[in-house]
Design goal:
This protein is mainly alpha-helical and about 160 residues long. The protein is built from six helices and two strands, in the order αααααββα.
Length: about 160
């Protein structure tokens, strides 16, 4: 996670504002939306990990990433063409900063976890029984997945 966040910072940190409006493929999220999604995932999955180690029998809730994106765009429930072009009016650099800050908090927290913290369990309505360790690994893979998309945008 440290490596992927550093690579994302190095890749997009000096982009011009218009570069955040590009996508890696037609109909896919643009770079600003990808970074927003990464920040939202840091919030959601970091919360789940925190709850799992502090709440016995914690049951996580699912979330719809597209609905979360619509909320950020100021148009929950509106068709895409009626939503703001910018995510919640934030610039690409704003959402990059949000993602990097949230990721730094989660990385520091996860580094402090004991083996028993990482083994703490939770349930999820779609995935069943999980551990905090699974969440951490899922987050790392998720960052790498979206880093590859941002790398594809960078060469377009």
């Amino acid at each position: 996670m440290r490596d992927s966040t550093a690579r994302i910072r190095a890749l997009v940190g000096n982009w011009r504002p218009d570069q955040f409006d590009r996508s890696y493929a037609p109909g896919k999220w643009d770079a600003r939306q990808i970074l927003t999604h990464l920040a939202q995932s840091e919030i959601a999955l970091g919360y789940r990990a925190r709850m799992a180690i502090t709440t016995p029998n914690y049951a996580a809730q699912s979330f719809d990433q597209d609905r979360w994106m619509a909320v950020e765009a100021g148009g929950a429930g509106l068709p895409a063409e009626a939503r703001s072009a910018k995510v919640g009016g934030l610039s690409g650099h704003d959402v990059l900063d949000a993602f990097l800050g949230l990721a730094a908090m989660n990385i520091a927290l996860f580094a402090s976890f004991s083996d028993s913290d990482r083994a703490a369990s939770l349930t999820h309505p779609e995935y069943g029984s999980l551990t905090v360790d699974w969440i951490i690994h899922q987050m790392a893979g998720h960052q790498i997945h979206h880093l590859k998309q941002l790398e594809a945008i960078a060469i377009r």
